[in-house]
Give the backbone structure.
Amino acid sequence: MSLWKEYLHPKTVQEAVEALASSPAPAIPIAGGTDLMLDLQQGNHTPVHTLVDLTGILELHALEIRGEKLFIGAGVPHNRIVESALVREHATSLVESCGLIGGPQVRNSATLGGNVAHALPAADGTIGLLALDAEAEVASPSSRRLLPLHELFAGPGKSTLAADEILVGFYVPLRKPRQASAFCRVMRAQGIALPILNLAAWVERDDEVIRATRIAVGPAGPTPFRALETGKFLTGKAFSEETIAGAQEVLLSEAKFRTSPARATAEYRRELVVVLLKNAFSAAWERAK
Amino acid sequence: MKKTQLSLTVNGNTHTLASIPGETLADLLRKRLHLTGTKIGCNEAECGACTVIMDGEPVLSCSTPAERADGKTILTIEGLAKTPLAPAGHSPHFQGKWEETEGGLHPLQEAFVSHGAVQCGFCIPGQIMTSYALLEKNPNPTSDDIRHALKDTICRCAGYPTIENAILAAAESLRTGQPVEGPDIPDSALEGQTVGKLKVRPDGVEKVTGHAIYTDDLIFDNMLFAAVKRAGVPHAFVRKIDVEKARSAPGVVSVLTAEDVPGENIHGLVTLDWPVMVGIDERVRYVGDAIAIVAAESQEAAKAAVELIEVEFDLQPVVGNAVQAREEGQPQIHEKGNLLKHIKVRKGDPEIGFAEADIVLEHTFHTPAHDHLFIEPECSIAVPEGERMLIYVGSQIPYQDRTQVARALGWDEGRVRILGQLMGGGFGGKEDIAGQIHAALLANATGRPVKLLFDRHESLLVHPKRHATQIKVKIGAKKDGTLVAAKTELYGDTGAYASLGEKVLTRATTHSAGPYIIPHVHADCYAMYTNNPPAGAFRGFGVLQSAFAIETVLDMLAEKLGLDRIELRRKNALRVGTETSTGQVMRESVGLVECIDKVSGTMCQVSGLSRDELFQARRVPDAEHLVRAWGFASGFKNTGLGGGADDCAGAEVELYEDGLFEVRSSSAELGQGLVTVMRMIVAEELSVPAEQVKVLVMDTDLTPNGGPTTASRQTYVTGNASRLAAKTLREAITATLAEKYDQAPDKIRFEDGNVRVNGHSLTMQEVYSEMKAAGKDPRVLYDYHAPATTPLGTPGDMHVAFSFASQAAEVEVNTLTGEVKVLRVIAANDVGHAINPLGLRGQIEGGVVMGVGHALLENFITKDGMVVTDRMSRYRVPSIVHTPEIIPIVVEDPASDGPYGAKGVGEIVLIPTPPAITNAIYNAVGVRFDTLPVDQEKLLWAMRNSSGSAG
Ligand SMILES: Cc1cc2nc3c(=O)[nH]c(=O)nc-3n(C[C@H](O)[C@H](O)[C@H](O)COP(=O)(O)OP(=O)(O)OC[C@H]3O[C@@H](n4cnc5c(N)ncnc54)[C@H](O)[C@@H]3O)c2cc1C
Ligand code: FES
Ligand code: FES
């Protein structure tokens, strides 16, 4: 009863997706394995026949500026993200979110692609990325496509990727002057390592006025949540305690919090989201000076 | 794309191996390359014990597919020493004897040994590899860098501050090329040559090089692997068991059920109530009950076969907690009912006391079950040898294992030999039978060696936990704070089987009014069977729970009376000449007042606050939502079994031809440092350097019975046995030499490892020859019996000694989120005398951190008998990031019957921590916790409602 029967080492994206399409099913990609290995070992994942290891594909490890965007390969492990000056410069919320995942050992293996593909509504890296207006590049045996990050998510633990598709990487717009982002979360002392609540904020300033902003929150629904109404409310307003208070109200009315047994009640999350919005938004605001 | 071969470089050697589907890197290293220094603590990416360096980065080998290592360079703990040591010892006949290996250690390894960062040692390879990776990147790390790097590398012995200091010392040595600086720990007040001085563990070097062998590291020829079919339901009758499919599954050699048990199908430490396997029409009492056992050619085959076993259950209603268990009309779990024991303490008449009191206060508390979470999961290997059965196991009570295995086999005890192995932590959780009997039954049935290794999940389901309790305390006092009466009522959930439940809850009961002088005390405890996993021994042994209750009540009382909480405790504190709740008169060694005074003084000193300010809320400047305050608590804990038990231990000391001494006892080394203590004591008595004494423990053929390793008793009883054996041997040597040289015995002096007589200096080799020539055996077996004690309910001394402690904790509460941090803990412990100051430091740090865990993190949750916290990711234990600054204070009020005045240390260290923390939370934000652990959400609501109480 081994966890898999075949293990493949593709060298290119094309090889990987073709392997996924043609290998005996079920065939699935494995990146860091920090989610997948545990799910397999603990019997939470249906047994697989083929694992397609993505770590040998150079393209997925790219971390570079491409035109107006920062490209972060899906196979880049969290530690590289955390240590990268480029990411720190252009995607601070991502550095902050990935830096909180696991310990250094986990962050050396775990990838941003795996964090996103796992499609949990409160995955830290995902939330950190979601506020940045990122796009995802997806490869299938026949094509490549770019789509807005949020279109990847179908439900808790379910992505919109087809069985023979993989994430190649993410494009994040380069940071312009007076733009910045931040990430905050609250954990529970007891129990599993997923946050009770996390929140990322991106903001563009026009002096004391909020020119544009994006807020992402998890878990606040079946998929990573974009607080669009809150963003609209904030846009064009002067930054002040009142504005934040107003935004907190809007956020509370648009986000749908649930009670997770032995973790947190919906009411507690409502308390926390108010704190996190203020903290993350204020931090981003300060940075955007 | 597919590879049939893997090629990887490990510690400088290149290996080309066939690829095996499903294999992890940890398995490849451990099973195929026999590099067993890489440990498996959880197999779920939570503990960090399996950390290795792959292409320069630390990774968790338990969740890394082996295939991924193809083409990579791996460094494991075995490859770290500068000069490679002998290849990893793979001796199946390791007999619990450790030799030191000299030379070539990496500064990290050296520092871990010299600072005493190594306790049980199981996590140490992971700690060192993680630190190594840190230092490679950052040669000059700050404390914060270290905490960041070690965040998810768990040490349950929890000497985190020492680990941090060791890393700093190693970093310094690596930067400067200077030798590693030793620790900054004072010697004890003892005036010994060896005892009371800083001595490193005899097994330290092996533990930092990965050469220390734990049970799962052993491989025997022809060995089978076992797996157990667990009930998976909490309460039911078994109606049908079908093992046919399992029997014919590939690789399966044997499948056994209850009817195949040749001897008695029962075990238990005190009460025989725990079936080896539950048979047809018998009762399942908890999810971990065994139904069938399988031996197969591989671990995977055994596990797969277990899945094929079909069981039909007739489900019964579940008894989910101790209070429910005592209600009318509940299902009765055992023939004698649900009540294991009603334990009573009777002193005076509380009603008289309450009538005299100016104030009477009553409150009810709850504490949850806790798991020991020793990082090494249980493992047993049974090896048939001729007419005998050898059991290799890390066990706290080897002689009890022998009895229990023999009973199930239907054999004479003498045919079973327990060879105790190094233990990767125990804390009380390795006293009961885990897999010993099952492995023996399968080995007996197949005639082959059988290994039964629990994974973390099975470990969490099966072994006995800490008792969940409900404790009601009613206390009466005069206006001036004089305590006049106490009445306590305890419910203890001992789960499906008794284990040590009766003993544990007796301690909970007798300690339930705290270390205070109270003329009238009644305590009633109902030790109840339920359908939860059994509860048994766990560091603190019931007293942790009652201390939480009584120490909280004392703070409530101080507030109501408007008295200083420290003064209130001091006023009522036990001292020499006063009487405990069980009527024991304290004649000596009561260091409580000194603990109280030292902690309160230190608190003011380190904080710069006055006594009043300490307990007031302080907002953090520039972060007004963070509020800080100190909290205070005390505690006491018996040393030794007491209660009328014959608390005895044997130790044997022998001089060998090569001039080395060996001390032997079956007492268990679980990481706490007993071996160091035994060695130091024998060295002291014989005036030889510690290095001249070898220690052999935990082998029922070779070592005399040391009794259970529990109740903080080993330093006391086995320490005394070792001391007296050594002393007697010294006298025998003296007598022999006196006769030979015709000298008065007092002219014969033991000095620096030699014996001086008549102007000559004899080496111990020569002494050996003299003894032999005189026809004397240079060997003494000493059976030590602790002073007699009396059972609860009869007059006299219930215990030979008590250890005392006071602690203060400073917490910081986030008033916006309810999150709590413990910033500092000051811990004063009266341990009699500190024989082994380095080991004591580790015990104090580990105890405080475990106490922080019990206050803030740990909660073993069951729901209708089903275990919710069945993975390490759900049962969280403290890591270095939860570790406060710990300020240890050693109070030495010697016990005259303890060896060199020593008493127990292992448990007292954590008993006051949880109430010190919860009292501090109250002082900070006015919220009283009467339930553990502190729940941040409840705390937030309570702050909002400012009702002042959180469940
Ligand atoms: C101890 C520990 C602590 C953790 N703490 C946190 C935390 O605090 N916050 C948090 O968010 N997460 C946490 N995690 C979860 C986990 O580490 C992350 O989600 C991680 O980023 C997953 O990445 P991976 O590369 O390991 O994914 P894998 O386990 O390899 O894969 C996860 C899933 O994604 C798929 N996948 C991977 N890569 C691709 C790709 N390129 N294209 C398509 N599908 C792909 C896989 O098929 C699989 O279904 C923790 C995990 C552990 C073990
Ligand atoms: S993290 Fe690998 S064994 Fe625990
Ligand atoms: S020494 Fe770390 S777990 Fe025991």
